[in-house]
Amino acid sequence: MSTDFYKTSILPFAGIIIKLCRAYTNSQQDFEDYYQEVCLQIWRSKDNFREESQWSTWVYRISLNVCLTLLKKKKNNVQHFVSDSVTAEETEDNYAFSNESLNLLYDAIRKLSEIDRAIIMLYLEEKSQKEIAEIIGTNPNNIGVRVKRIKNRLKKILDGKIN
Amino acid sequence: MEKSIENIWKEGFLKSDALVAPKINNLYNQKSIHIIDKFKRMFKINLIAIVAFSFVFLIVSFFVGIPITGAIFFITLSVLVLINKKLLNDLEKIDMGVSSYKYLKAFNQWIKKQVSINEKMSRFLYPIIFISMILGFWYKDAEGMPLGKRLVNEVLKGFPDIYLIYGIPLIGIVIALLILVLLAFFGGRIYKWDLNIVYGRVFKKLEELMTDIESLRS
Description:
The complex is a heterodimer.
Chain A: H1 3-10, H2 14-24, H3 28-45, H4 55-68, E1 71-73, E2 79-81, H5 100-110, H6 114-124, H7 129-136, H8 140-158
Antiparallel strand pairs in A: 1-2
Helix pairs in contact in A: 2-3, 2-4, 2-6, 3-4, 6-8, 7-8
Chain B: H1 5-12, H2 35-63, H3 67-92, H4 100-138, E1 141-142, E2 145-146, H5 147-158, E3 164-165, E4 168-169, H6 170-217
Antiparallel strand pairs in B: 1-2, 3-4
């Protein structure tokens, strides 16, 4: 990958990638591996960008699709999808950010299903229901209900009512 | 809880240290950990290994006097490689820039297609390999006579009343047919069993993701 491509086309959108990769990983090492993989796949797929959507939306799609289907070798060398069975006890990266509330929110987000994580991340990034539906590939009418449900679940997790 | 999750999110990322990109070094030369790339790598290695093995076996088979086995092996495995090479080309076409549903569906369909094709081929592959071994050794030269014929002559000495069909003992034909049926029956299962050990969790997770998205589409 050329340094120029990374600097001009990926780095300005690193925030999106970082936020998303953090939600699907539970350690600094995994996070860095995911970040690198997303960048690599963006570079590899760049010729498929048709300018039908914004570059940032396209980066979001790639990042999300990569995170959803990443295969990560765990310490015991068994192959897993990273988000498979992540429990609070396994979370090694509780303090990735200096803001404690944000760390707690991320911990709560990591307890959601993969698709729910994607939806809430897009919602928090202030994407419209239509945009969320387009990125996920689903019906926009159901997104509002799902977001409400996810927010309620997050609130309960943050209030310590459920694990 | 005092703050809304929207506020926690916004305030959390106000600080400049919140979104520091990790350093990436020598990115392109790093081994991809993505499942599609892993499939591609495994497929390519497998195909190269099959081609190399079938070619070496073809040569060796001539030297050890079982060229029929070598030739059938070579042709069968070449067909297997060609079909899987075509499947590999389809994998290259999966576009990551589409919606998650389309992307996962394309990947899921590819997996199902390749499993289904290889499962069907395994039902024929194992029996063909067995037949090639039987034929190869049957016609192997044993002091001027095919090994199979020599064996039948030896058997006839011990069991002169044995029933023959075209010079082959019926019991031998029945046993060979039984093995062929078993191999055809279990060929697909052996393949799926092998595949599930390596990718069972991946397949399960993909199904879960698809179900979740499809529930949102309905």
